[in-house]
Design goal:
There is one protein chain. By secondary structure, the chain is α+β, with helices and mostly antiparallel strands. Among the domains are: 32-104, Oligo-1,6-glucosidase, Domain 2 (Oligo-1,6-glucosidase, domain 2); 417-501, Immunoglobulin-like. It has helices at 2-13, 32-37, 119-134, 184-197, 214-217, 244-257, 289-302, 330-334, 340-345, 387-391, 397-410, 412-415; strands at residues 20-22, 51-52, 55-60, 63-68, 77-79, 93-96, 101-104, 139-142, 205-208, 231-232, 265-267, 306-308, 418-422, 431-437, 448-456, 462-465, 472-476, 482-483, 487-490, 494-501. Helix 7 links the parallel strand 11 (265-267) and strand 12 (306-308).
Length: 507
């Protein structure tokens, strides 16, 4: 607790804020609540988790012939209560002989789900929220928040032909999670949690990890009359291809489903996904991986929304290469029998050890992360890809991020302005371009009243007329870009930011 409080205080002393990970869905099997709950059916914590009697497999002369809910009979094999799978794609029910019942785990087998239909559970978890808010935590990332409530009738989930599991959905592994995800009670709980946390000042942030279709997850944000959580992680951008068509479609989709005052989140990676820099290879047009990374991150940091940066992305950390066998990630151990090439064919990222290697601070041993043995080995390229080296290089990826973050903070058009996407023929098809405008047009607003962002995702140099009155050069990813009063020249994998002053006239 001393370490935690020191962290909170030191973050605040640096005029930053700290958001903690809040896991409402489950606890560990080693938690005192669960130890008590699994010991029998008649103790104070008996109903704190999702317990259910199993179903029986009927066996006759021809073998297995069906499932029945009748009481267990001697000699019959007990089956799980429902067909519910966990998020990792395997059976989510675990048998406990001390109760002769099954408990449900929506993620890993040693993480039993709490029963939010039992009022003391919600009270206890809100007490945890209160505990941390009272100590100065500025908000919470809400882990798998869409999975807090499950169907109280314990109906089987429908079948799905989808084998793999996409980054933006939990429907997969041949199952539609109709009765274990995104129940109406989750939406109600989001509004209840917002009302609860709004009692603290200054206001706290609630950022939800919620999977599903936009029409569904949008409901977690609530309405102006009944607000919900502030924002939701949107993972569609994780599937990016280095193309204008992809990013133009993403921006259009986010503006459609999350118009002002809602804010989309701009997410390229996290602790569950392959590091995105590893997907950005050098191409035959002569551009480098860093050139492409600068273009993608520039869009992330200038488009309307909340950019979420996973540690190491700002220096271009790449994925570690680890086999399934011997993995520390329990998901990988669960699939240790599966050849890696099969996982690759199905586009399954099963060993998350690869994206969780230590931060690369220096070229020294263990990347300067620790002098002890780290939980995972540091990536071999830490001698060249590290913070110390990039701090000293003005054109490094790290300094690119720093410049854009300073610009975003200084310019109201970028941190709170509206967005207008420019489409062909106003700009070339391989160029993603959009303008950001300040909330007001008076001279009281500092900075530029309008900002133009143009990014060339193509393999050819594009020369085109500037479709706006933004003329002042603010930033570019390459000295090879050119801008005049009426024209913009963008080589492959380059980007430029131009501004118009607050009076409305070109500067």
């Amino acid at each position: 607790m001393t370490d935690a409080q020191n962290l909170i205080d030191e973050v605040h002393r640096r005029e930053m804020r700290v958001v903690f990970d809040m896991i409402f869905c489950h606890t560990s099997i080693e938690h005192p609540w669960f130890i008590e709950s699994r010991s029998g059916r008649d103790n104070p914590y008996s109903d704190w988790y999702i317990w259910r009697d199993g179903r029986q497999a009927l066996r006759g002369p021809t073998g297995y012939c069906g499932i029945s809910d009748r009481p267990k009979k001697k000699g019959l094999r007990q089956l799980p209560p429902t067909n519910w799978k966990s998020i990792t794609g395997v059976n989510g029910w675990q048998y406990e002989p001390r109760r002769n019942q099954w408990f449900y785990t929506n993620f890993l087998s040693f993480q039993p789900d709490l029963n939010y239909r039992h009022p003391p559970v919600k009270e206890a978890m809100l007490d945890n929220v209160r505990f941390w808010l009272d100590r100065g935590v500025d908000g919470f990332r809400l882990d798998i928040f869409h999975a807090v409530f499950k169907d109280n009738q314990f109906r089987d989930n429908p079948f799905s032909f989808r084998i793999g599991q996409p980054a933006d959905s939990n429907d997969g592994a041949n199952q539609i999670k109709k009765y274990t995800m995104n129940l109406p009670e989750n939406i109600t709980f989001a509004r209840e949690l917002r009302r609860f946390t709004d009692n603290w000042s200054p206001r706290r942030l609630l950022l939800g990890e919620v999977f599903g279709r936009h029409q569904v997850i949008r409901q977690y944000l609530g309405t102006p009359e009944k607000p919900g959580i502030h924002a939701i992680f949107l993972f569609q951008m994780i599937r990016f291809t280095f193309s204008a068509r992809f990013f133009r479609a993403i921006l259009q989709t986010f503006e459609q489903h999350y118009p002002q005052p809602a804010l989309p989140t701009l997410v390229l990676g996290n602790h569950d996904q392959r590091r995105w820099i590893s997907k950005v290879g050098a191409k035959t047009d002569g551009t480098t991986k860093t050139d492409r990374a600068k273009c993608i991150s520039l869009l992330q940091l200038t488009a309307r929304g909340i950019p979420v940066i996973y540690y190491g992305e700002e220096i271009g950390m790449e994925d570690g290469d680890f086999p399934f066998r011997g993995a520390l990630d329990p998901v990988a151990r669960q699939y240790s029998w599966l050849p890696r090439w099969v996982a690759g064919l199905l586009k399954l990222y099963l060993n998350r050890d690869g994206c969780r290697t230590p931060m690369q601070w220096t070229p020294d041993q263990n990347g300067g992360f620790t002098t002890a043995d780290p939980w995972l080995p540091v990536h071999p390229n830490h001698t060249t890809v590290n913070v110390a080296r990039q701090q000293a290089a003005p054109d490094s990826l790290l300094n690119h991020y720093r410049t854009l973050l300073r610009l975003r903070r200084a310019q109201p058009a970028l941190n709170s302005g509206s967005q207008h996407l420019l489409t062909p023929p106003a700009v070339p098809g391989s160029v993603v371009a959009y303008t950001r405008n300040t909330p007001t047009t008076d001279n009281e607003n500092p900075g530029f009243s309008e900002i133009l962002i143009a990014i060339n995702f193509g393999r050819k140099t594009h020369t085109f007329a500037n479709p706006t009155t933004c003329r002042t050069h603010i930033y570019t990813t390459s000295p090879d870009t050119q801008t005049t009063d009426n024209q913009i020249v963008l080589p492959p994998a380059t980007a430029v930011i131009l501004g118009r002053d607050t009076t409305g006239a070109p500067a």
